Structures are given as C-alpha cells and as structure tokens.
Amino acid sequence: MGDLMKNKFLVCIDSDGCAIDSMTIKHKEAFGPAFIKVWDIDDSKKNTILDQWNNINLYSLMRGINRFQGFLAILTLHPELVDNEQLNVFAEWIETTKALSDESLREKYKQTGLEIMGKALEWSDLVNSKIEVLPLAQPFDGVMDTIELIKSKADIAVVSSANFSAIKDEWQKCGLFKLVDYFYSQADGTKSECINKLIGMGYERDKMIMVGDALGDYKAAENNQIWFFPILAAKESLSWIDLKHKYLHLFLVQQFNKEIQEDLLLNMKKNLS
C-alpha cells in the first residue's frame, strides 16, 4: 500500500470533537441516555449517572476514550449494577481484544453468554440508532479552510475510534470526505495501531503529526513517536486557526519540536482538568 503515498508529509486527524462538532451532542443525546435505558436506571440516580458520563467523556483527561471504556468507567463507579466477576471479564476483554468494536463484542457475547456483554451490545446498538437520527454535525469553524490547506501540502488520514458509517456520513455531507486519503475507524484497531499501519506504508515518523482533542490521541502519537497537535475542548475553532496560521508551517518546515510539543500538551491538560 506504500504506492498510495502522494506526499512525504502525513497529517492524521481525529473526527468526533476534533474536526467535527459531533462529540458533545452524541454523548448528551445518545451515549448517556442509552445507558440509562438499557440498565433501567432509577430516576433518583439518572441525573448523577448522566453527569458522570459527560464529565468523564467530555471534560476530563479521559475525554475521547472508546465507548466501551466509557461504559466500563460508569459501571466501575456503580458496582451495584453488575456482578463483579462479570465486570472483570468485561474489563479483561477491553484490555485484550484486537478491536474495541461491536463485532468483537458480539463474538465475545457468543462465547460467554454473560449479561454484561449482552447489555453492552444492546447499549451500543441503541447508541448507533440514536446517533443516526441526530441533526447533521458540521465541522468546527476553521476546519474546512485548514484541511484544504493541509491537503495542498500533505496527505491526510482520519484516525478515529468512532463507527465508520457515522464518520463517512459526516465527512461526505460536509464536503471533507474527498480531501482525505485514508480512513481508519473503530473496527480497524486502536488509534496507535492505525498510526502504526500508516508508518508501515512508508511515511517517516518526523514527517507525521496527529491532530486530536483528547489525551488518548496524544498517547497514540507518542506510542508511534510522531508529533501531536491538540484541539482544545470548547476552544476548537481557535485551535484550528492556530494550526493553519502557525503550527502547520512549523511542521512542514520541520521546526516543530519537543519544546513546542510540551507547551501545547500542557495547555491541553490544563484545559481538561
């Protein structure tokens, strides 16, 4: 697949909450409410659990974790909802599965028949159906212009932990799909694994950068020894403007360095803590 390379530089971009303004509404209108329904949460606990879901997945350093990791995080806070042995099996699946996807979970449910696996699958299916009827998400201000500029100078890969059908729909309808060279989604493995696949195509690590809104995006970049640029939660448009007018140039002339990286990362952590 190395012959797909058009440029020596590659910019990897996360989708939900980074390029596309879809993350907040998905968590508040789909992920959280679906959890309440599937576990038949009592009204007295409903608001507490919804607040915990949103705080973990949107406003903490855990922002951007895979949906099943979020599912586990809430169940860990509420052990009364599930048998501890089943919770441990679910946690082990998260740690050992090759892909945190519906397909992998469905296979695990067939193997074990455990209630927690069935509930997680039911929840994930309900989340998908809720997302399908949400209003069409749009790119953050500044995204279109910046990605068009990137495309003129580098190859582009979307590297996301979201469902591919949702990513494809959002990127097609807003006109960004045609600008992307590669799409990697939930079923393709972790973000770290997906970046590693791109390195395997022949891109050099110092000519690759991951653009993301969560600490997990940074860790995926760090694991592969490539650069990282953060899109700050609630300051997304300003971040994209900064990328367009300053940091993209530094990356392309190879003056993006560890000191710049650390300053940007510190700002990201402060913004999420």
TrEMBL record:
InterPro entries, A to Z: HAD-like_hydrolase_sf, HAD-like_sf, HAD_2, HAD_sf
This protein's UniProt keywords: Hydrolase
GO process annotations (BP): DNA repair
PANTHER family reported in the protein's UniProt record: PHOSPHOGLYCOLATE PHOSPHATASE
One of the record's GO molecular function terms: phosphoglycolate phosphatase activity
Name of this protein: Phosphoglycolate phosphatase-like HAD superfamily hydrolase
Lineage: Bacteria, Bacillati, Bacillota, Clostridia, Lachnospirales
